[in-house]
Design goal:
By secondary structure, the protein is of the alpha/beta class. Helices cover about 25% and strands about 25% of the residues. It is built from 16 helices and 33 strands. Helix 9 (about 335-345) links the parallel strand 16 (about 310) and strand 17 (about 355).
Length: about 675
């Protein structure tokens, strides 16, 4: 069943708003519904249709058919032919660039339509048809009746004249500008006029929308310049007094056939940003790593027009990568950064993604090609421990964020430096591990059984089973959260966990503490890093044990490459420990089990690094007994060539000492 057409009986029925297009002389067709017919039919009845018709006639007679809160009407109904023009048409034409068009013939609602894509001619090979697009800006138009676009020049002139637009003058002036500026090729046999119509609600109202409509003409600019008397004579002199406007036309207007076209504009990065609901942010960023996560982040941000990106990756695409990478699978063997940049720059001509192959840390150190100095945000999606630890000790680089998945593919993590880089990625990593040890989030975050597969012949060619759906789900989350975090000055540690059975997603927001750094501890050459969260726990354990000493093991990790040691946590005294006001003997019950639990919850990244104990009175300086303890710990750690460390907490004071270590 179709909804019946409702037309006027009177031949002199007035022109009003909200009428459907109808051929000249045909009855006026009333536009009764603003929903598609398929939707309207769900609640349509003949009785309701009659009531709707009465309502339409009443509102039209009162001049209230168009509601005040309803958007202004366009001047023209959409033609059946569509042309898509570049967003930078005006700038490109001013530079003398050439437009080429290609056409598709899609079937829409059972009818064949023309869909024309206009692009800038790239290189010497023209695979389409060259066309001159002539932009014309019209004066403001007050909305009212919606017209069917005319299919000949005289109809266009008559219609525009009726709404106060002197289109002949506009066309002649535009042809003159084309000829004078030599902005295109006059001999190109196809021309299209692109009219921009600013539309207002009332004669004294401000403009509320613009309609862009095109008219295609199978004529060259050279022919038109003659027909509209822009030039005259065998030598093609301009038909104007020098320094003045064109002389009026003496002859008759040419009779051209026109093809009206709906005009769509490719969205610029600013428009994509606006349509994505993002705050305008056209800053520059660096993305380190364009694997599954980095590739998805880049795709989301480029589509959303958020920032311009330089991407760094020295890896190449292998067959298994395309199972969960957003890039098309034609890039086998190509550098990931270069290929991803080409893909996005092809699809979005203003993306301006630049690619670099190599070590991101070297680019940061040397500022090669000015990549880091021109950016104000760097996102690390490398899934590497090395880059965030290395970059944390390089000065004069932008604020960093690090995003990664847990190996299970169910959890996502975001580490965010504060805007002044007081809490850097390596500092946040240690606090992230402590959260896994202490909080419920660590119960399953890194402890789930993982299924792996071989992606190559090398023993290192292993990858974790993870679906493209999981990559997209977590990447979308991280893309939004990185964007939001960039508008805040605060450091953050965020962990999301998905329950695939229920679809629930939980967030754990970890408190960030100011870091402490002590260089060349006890002349070992090692830098020791801890944070105020560790100190708070030390003071709390000391206070709870007063008047006796207490203590326990230190857990953390070493970066022997850089001679850095990170204190992640201080563990409470085992139950079989013995403390007095002047001595402490740490017990052993449960220590091995605790270390195994810590290794499991942190992916084996955190382990034993030394001992700590408290001084109930006095300073945190080392006693003879303390030195003996450190000697013993150092001897045990020396088996693996590792340094040993001791922390002492006193009232309002924490000191760290170290000994040993094979790498110098």
């Amino acid at each position: 069943m179709n909804i019946p057409f409702t037309v006027s009986w009177r031949k002199d029925f007035p022109e009003t708003m909200h009428q459907n297009p109808a051929p000249p002389g045909d009855p006026k067709s009333l536009c009764l519904y603003d929903e598609p017919e398929s939707v309207t039919l769900m609640t349509w009845t003949p009785e309701r249709h009659i009531q709707r018709t009465k309502w339409w006639l009443t509102q039209a007679s009162l001049g209230e058919l168009h509601a005040d809160d309803q958007a202004v009407e366009p001047m023209f109904f959409s033609p059946s032919t569509t042309i898509v023009i570049p967003h930078d048409l005006h700038a490109g034409l001013a530079k003398g660039q050439v437009i080429t068009v290609s056409a598709e013939k899609p079937i829409i609602a059972g009818k064949e339509r023309f869909f024309i894509k206009a692009e800038w001619l790239a290189g010497e090979v023209n695979r389409g048809v060259s066309v001159n697009l002539l932009e014309i800006s019209c004066g403001d138009v007050t909305h009212g009746r919606v017209y069917s676009a005319p299919n000949n020049l005289q109809g266009l002139i008559d219609l525009f004249d009726s709404v106060g637009i002197h289109v002949v003058e506009l066309i002649r002036d535009r042809l003159l500008r084309f000829v004078v500026t030599d902005e295109g090729d006059e001999k190109i046999e196809h021309t299209a006029f692109i009219f921009t119509l600013p539309i207002r609600r009332g004669d004294s109202s401000s403009v509320e929308r613009e309609q862009i409509i095109g008219f295609y003409c199978n004529k060259s600019v050279r022919e038109m310049a003659d027909d509209f008397e822009v030039r005259f004579g065998a030598h093609g002199h301009l038909n104007k007094v020098p320094g003045e406007a064109l002389r009026p036309m003496a002859g008759v207007l040419p009779q051209y056939g026109l093809e009206p076209m709906e005009v769509l504009v490719t969205p610029s990065s600013a428009k994509r940003c606006e349509q994505s609901g993002y705050d305008s942010n056209q800053g520059k960023g660096v993305l380190v790593g364009v694997g599954a996560l980095g590739g998805a982040l880049l795709d989301i941000w480029v589509r959303g027009g958020w920032r311009q990106w330089s991407i760094i990756d020295e890896d190449i695409f292998r067959p298994h990568n395309f199972i969960r990478h957003v890039a098309p699978c034609y890039g086998l063997g190509q550098n990931k950064a270069s290929y991803c940049a080409r893909v996005h720059n092809f699809h979005f001509d203003d993306a301006n993604v630049s690619a670099l192959s190599g070590d991101a840390c070297e680019f940061a150190k040397t500022n090669n090609e000015g990549v880091y100095s021109s950016a104000n945000l760097v996102v690390d999606a490398s899934a590497s421990l090395d880059y965030p630890r290395a970059i944390s000790w390089i000065k004069n680089v932008p604020r960093h964020m690090s995003a990664f998945f847990a190996p299970s593919g169910n959890d996502a993590v975001l580490l965010v430096e504060d805007s002044k880089r007081r809490s850097r990625l390596s500092h946040l990593e240690a606090q992230y591990y402590r959260a896994l040890i202490e909080l419920d989030v660590g119960n399953t975050h890194l402890t789930q059984d993982l299924v792996r597969f071989r992606s190559g012949v090398s023993c290192r060619d292993k990858s974790t089973v993870m679906s493209h759906a999981r990559v997209l789900s977590l990447s979308s989350l991280l893309a939004e959260q990185i964007r939001l975090a960039s508008s805040s000055d605060d450091a953050q540690i965020l962990i999301w966990q998905d329950d695939l059975r229920t679809g629930a997603r939980a967030l754990t927001k970890v408190d960030v503490h100011k870091s402490r750094v002590q260089d060349n501890v006890s002349a070992t050459g090692y830098k020791v890093i801890w944070d105020e969260g560790v100190e708070q726990k030390l003071h709390s354990l000391r206070t709870s044990a007063l008047p006796n000493e207490t203590g326990g093991i230190l857990v953390g990790y070493q970066d022997l490459k850089r001679k850095h040691v990170y204190v992640v946590d201080v563990r409470p005294a085992p139950w079989d420990s013995e403390g007095t006001p002047i001595t402490f003997d740490r017990g052993t019950e449960g220590v091995e089990e605790d270390l195994n639990r810590i290794a499991s919850r942190t992916g084996a990244n955190v382990s034993y690094i030394g001992e700590w104990h408290s001084h109930p009175t006095g300073s945190a300086g080392m006693s003879a007994l303390d030195r003996n303890q450190l000697e013993g710990v150092a001897e045990n750690m020396s088996v693996d060539g590792l340094p040993a460390f001791q922390m002492i907490v006193a009232h309002g004071e924490v000191r760290v000492s170290g000994k040993g270590g094979a790498r110098g």
